[in-house]
Amino acid sequence: ANAELRRIQTQIRTQFPDYAALSIPEGVPAAQVGSLLQGGDEAFVAFATAGEKGELIAVVVRANGAASSVAIPVSREELERSIKALRAGVTLPSGGAFAPAALAALSFDMSAATKLYDALISPLEAKLGGAGGIVIAPDGPLESLPFNLLAVAEAANPDPADAFARYRGADWLIDRYALSTVPTVSALKQLRRKGAPSAEKPFVGFGDPVLQGSVSAAPKAPRRITLGGSGATNVQAIRELTPVPQTGAMLNDLAAALGASSADVYTGARGSEGALAALNVTGGLSKYRVAAFATHALVAGELQRLGLDEPALVLTPPANDNPQPADDGLLRASEVVGLSMNADWVLLTACNTAADDGALGAEPLSGLAKS
Predict the structure, then answer these.
(1) Under 8 Å between Cβ of 135 and 180
(2) Is 147 within 8 Å of 179 (Cβ atoms)?
(3) What are the sequence ranges of the domains in the chain?
(4) What is each CA distance from 126 to 39, 73, 130, 175, 180, in whole angstroms?
(5) Considering the entire predicted model, what is its pTM?
(6) Exposed, middle or buried: residue 114 (CB in 10 Å: 0-12, 13-18, 19+)?
(7) Which of 30, 184, 309, 363 would give a disulfide with 67, using CB separation of 3.0 to 4.6 Å?
(8) In this model, does residue 180 exceed pLDDT 90?
(9) Does an H or E element contain 335, and which?
(10) How far is CA 154 from CA 103, 150, 163, 209, in A?
């Protein structure tokens, strides 16, 4: 099994070197990591599990190549509990959509925010002295942790009559450091060595697919997206997904803010995988500085149930029930790798359709961000 895994990894590195750099971890010398950091005030922090008990270790690298490791005395179970508590305060319940009642029911757990800071970042502060930014490579359940939600300390004596005083008065980690996340250290190497993008057009957006599910009906888990052992796409199951409210308006607002033409927003019937593929084949996709995808994401935690073997974004499904894979309504991670893009920013504002098991870190950055 190990030999077969190594063979597959070698094949991926040969055929898709950029994707391999983002998805298959490789060691990078500390001096080389330091040379990739911007200026003298950026630090790199890699978290990793080690040993039979899965102890958590953080490795801190500074711009001068100095590296140090710090043991993080917290169990995986404790981490998962705290991360789930933190995420619960910013995650709408299933079926809650964006209704005011659902939003009002959310309660952000400031205790979890400070507890996670105390466990993960506080032990590193001595190594981060003078840093203005931190690039983080998470591992395990930390792959599901939004580090920008961590708080150094809660607000002191917030006004109880002001519902937001405890948030405004908190000492947030992101106010101390500019935070960014990469899948692996080799991904940092790959990203920092790319030349500056030189795309000429401001923005392109894909999303708001034509779907037939009812927004008002009680939510239900989607049916299998693939058919039997053939692996063919079940187009009707895609059509039955619920539309994602306001995604079209969001893409149009982004286009207007960036000075783009409405023709560069592919929504509704125009927002198909075939349209994206055509734009890619002609080289048009590489001409945009910002690209955004606003739709359903079928990601880690739900793939087996849906019959998928990799993450995917939902685009407008074709009218044909037996489409070609290149226009079946699913933009798979392996297809994302084949897109020729030259963007400064790729925005993935996707709705996780059916990940209801609460699993953390099932696949780094959902597999889509990696692609």
Answers:
(1) yes
(2) yes
(3) 2-192, 201-366
(4) 19, 16, 9, 18, 20
(5) 0.70
(6) buried
(7) 30
(8) yes
(9) helix 333-336
(10) 22, 10, 14, 41
Residue 356 pLDDT exceeds 50: no
Residue type (1 letter), 250: M
Helix (H, G, I), strand (E, B) or coil at 27: coil
- Angle between helices 110-120 and 76-88 in degrees, nearest 10: 140
Query: In the block, which residue shows the tokens 């190497």?
Result: 189
Give the CA diameter of the chain. Answer: 63
Please choose, from the candidates 315, 258, 337, the residue with its C-alpha nearest in 3D space to the C-alpha of residue 291. 258
Instruction: Note whether 57 and 70 are within 8 A (CB).
Output: yes
Mean pLDDT for the stretch of residues 214-224: 55
15-28 confidence digits (pLDDT tens) = 777 666 666 666 78
Domain 201-366 has CATH 3.30.420: no
User: If we measure between CA atoms, which residue out of 363, 208, 338 comes closest to residue 271?
Assistant: 208
| Between residues 65 and 27, the one the model is more confident about | 65
| Nearest of 327, 308, 309, 311 to residue 319 by alpha carbon | 327
Cβ within 8 Å of residue 247, ≥6 positions away: 207, 208, 267, 294, 295, 349
Look at residue 215 in the predicted model and tell me its pLDDT: 60
Helix (H, G, I), strand (E, B) or coil at 63: coil
- What pLDDT score was predicted for residue 223? 59
Cα–Cα distance measured from residue 29 to residue 46, given in angstroms and rounded to the nearest whole number: 13
Q: What token pair was written down for 343?
A: 């963007």
Closest of 300, 329, 302, 325 to residue 315, by C-alpha: 329
